[in-house]
Amino acid sequence: MAITREEVLHVARLARLALSDDEAGRLGGQLSAILDYVKQLDRLDTRDVVPTSHAVEMGTPMRDDVVEPFGDREALLANAPDRHNDCFRVPRIIED
Amino acid sequence: MANVPVHEWTLLEAARKVREKEISSRELTGALLARIGALDPKVRAYITVLPEAAAAQAAECDEEQAKGVLRGPFHGVPIGLKDIFCTRGVRTTCGSRILHHFNPPYDAFVTEKVLGAGAVLLGKHNMDEFAMGSSTETSFFGPTRNPWDLSRIPGGSSGGTAAAVAAGMCFAGVGTDTGGSIRQPASLCGVVGVKPTYGRVSRYGMIAFASSLDQGGPIARTVADAAALLGVIAGYDRRDSTCVDMPVPDYLAAAERSVKGFRVGLPKEYFEGEGLSPEVRAAVEKALKALTDQGAVVVEVSLPHTSFALSTYYLIAPAEASSNLARYDGVRYGHRAEGVSGLIEMMSRTRAEGFGDEVKRRVMIGTYALSAGYYDAFYGKAQKVRTLIRDDFNKAFESADVLLTPTAPTPAFRLGEKTGDPLTMYLSDIYTIPCNLAGIPGISVPCGFSADGLPIGAQLLSNSFREETLFTAAGAVERALPLRRVAPLEG
Known about the structure:
- The complex is a heterodimer.
- Chain A is mainly alpha-helical.
- Chain A is built from three helices and two strands; from the N terminus they run H-H-H-E-E.
- Chain A has a two-stranded antiparallel ribbon with strand order 1-2.
- In chain A, a hairpin with a 2-residue loop joins strand 1 and strand 2 (87-88).
- The longest helix of chain A is centred in the N-terminal third of the chain and has 18 residues, at 21-38.
- The two termini of chain A are 38 Å apart.
- Chain B has a single domain, classed as Amidase signature (AS) enzymes, CATH 3.90.1300.10.
- Helices cover 39% and strands 13% of the residues of chain B.
- Chain B has 17 helices and eleven strands.
- Chain B has helices spanning 11-19, 25-43, 51-66, 109-116, 159-166, 183-189, 223-233, 251-254, 269-272, 278-293, 309-324, 343-354, 357-370, 376-399, 422-426, 433-438, 467-480, and strands at 46-49, 78-82, 120-125, 172-177, 192-195, 215-220, 263-267, 297-301, 402-406, 442-449, 455-462.
- An eleven-stranded mixed β-sheet of chain B has the order 1-3-2-4-6-5-10-11-9-7-8, sandwiched between helices.
- In chain B, helix 11 (309-324) crosses helix 13 (357-370).
- The two termini of chain B are 22 Å apart.
- The chains are: A mainly alpha, B alpha/beta.
- Chains A and B meet through helix 1 and helix 2 of A and helix 11, helix 12, helix 13, helix 14 and helix 16 of B.
């Protein structure tokens, strides 16, 4: 199953990955090969099979809704690529 | 025993000698730091070494011990952690450029546990980027070498941890296993690696790859060392909602029990494939003989959906990864691209610069498999086949207590041998992946060497939360096949 260049670029946009022309070409071929391989799953009839999303069956555990402040605010902010006082600074969000 | 060099002591021996004041933590830590200094320029098992912090921690341990205070079972004993476990104030990269200056503001559960047990942290081990790989070759920091043959890979993704343990550059370490990332490098480096049951070890502070498959576990040179370390890192943690609240058994005692009467299942599908090297098969047969000589009985079992496991994994793991890795957007931490005009461009360029080829490939597969119109055909289908694979194991464990298989189809391959073809690389995890899909525990224990002197491991699998069975069986293999565990490397 061949993945077209348009599809590669569409998926890359969804994944927020800026690909070079070279990468887009290479990934297209590799993705096609991998998807061809995994197509073997179609040989199995799974109409009556319940999907497994987690290996260990357990319900969603509940806890009290209690606020727990994180002690080291400065350590969090120290990792910011660009910081303005106690804020993370980002480039403009609304584009022309 | 007097002449065994310090770096070849087991974790438990080192802990006992510190406890009984035969050696100080400072001497012990100094000896291993010296070995890292001499060997790691060749092996490159560490991304970050912490000589000052480790020496300071060792000095504290010695002072406390002088006052009669012991932190825990590993008081003063130096270990290492895969660079996927957050360490407060110590750079944690996950093998990626995107995190190469990241300083976590908190410790992972596993970090808390090993430090709480008194261990001294020597440093952070190299790994495939975001644990995506089987050779450590996808690390942003360059590959680790196999200590048994420096022209070969150590396996992956926890290759740095396995290599450091095999080279005597730490007494033990903790890795993570999503599709074989503890067991495969343990096998290729001639050491013991354990993938616990999903939910046995908290994932809090362990950087996420595929959340329904990821599990942390020990890598050590003996079964008893691995058992003792799992005893320390297992347990309930409310910060991981999938962590199971069950008592932690005495794994160390299990490692010494007898296998008499154990039913050892040989899943025929694991021995039929053409990719299995004859040397690996012969070594695994020796492990089987070791078990039957000690009173275990053999049963034939079948896991009919084995040949579908790789496909299932390569849809589920990338799908979960594409979602987990969405957080690396250059806003709050990590790398950010320069010279961009808007937010979307900033994120897309940050991720393009920050991620390597394998991570991009998996993010792309995962995004595709989850995207509109393809979800049911790919991700949904894979989740259903996952059920079939798990049912196979449930059925097998009705007639067997433990399953014996090869860990990896071949001994360690050469650097660069498989980097050109992703699918060939993925096949090195063919025997380890089904265990993660089913959530069951597995262990790799050394069972021989190839003609070229490369280590070979046998994999044992048991039903969920039956790690004791694994330690009993692996202990029996180890006692019958005493093999060299520290690679013959000189600085």
